[in-house]
Design goal:
Layout (H helix, E strand, L loop, with lengths): L7 H14 L14 H14 L3 H15 L6 H8 L11 H4 L10
Length: about 110
């Protein structure tokens, strides 16, 4: 038995019917912020490997700011860190670290 090719009319009707059946808001992925519980799990996983990891990142930022001639006051460091997130747990570095002793006064 040979199969007949569908006519253009049948093909377009089938495509239109398939398009109607799909929900209009269908998306493969969506980006949502972490809830507090999930963020805590990520933060604990990151600091469990190396408890001082976030502090090391802050020291690197202070060194970079200093090498660029930017003042490394606690407020300047906090402002720079507020734009950065940990590459492992995704937390905001300004919120995850204690900045009281990390930045030298300039």
């Amino acid at each position: 038995m040979t199969m007949q090719r569908p006519s253009r009319r049948q093909l377009l009707a089938g495509l239109a019917g398939g398009a109607i059946a799909l929900p209009s808001g269908a998306r493969a992925f969506s980006v949502e912020p972490l809830d507090a519980g999930s963020a805590e799990i990520y933060r604990n996983a990151c600091t469990a490997r190396n408890p001082l990891f976030h502090d090391d990142l802050v020291k690197e930022v202070v060194t970079l700011l200093d090498s660029e001639g930017v003042a490394t006051t606690p407020d300047a460091v906090r402002q720079a860190l507020s734009r950065l997130s940990c590459p492992y747990c995704g937390c905001n570095l300004a919120e995850a670290t204690d900045l009281s002793d990390s930045a030298p006064k300039s």
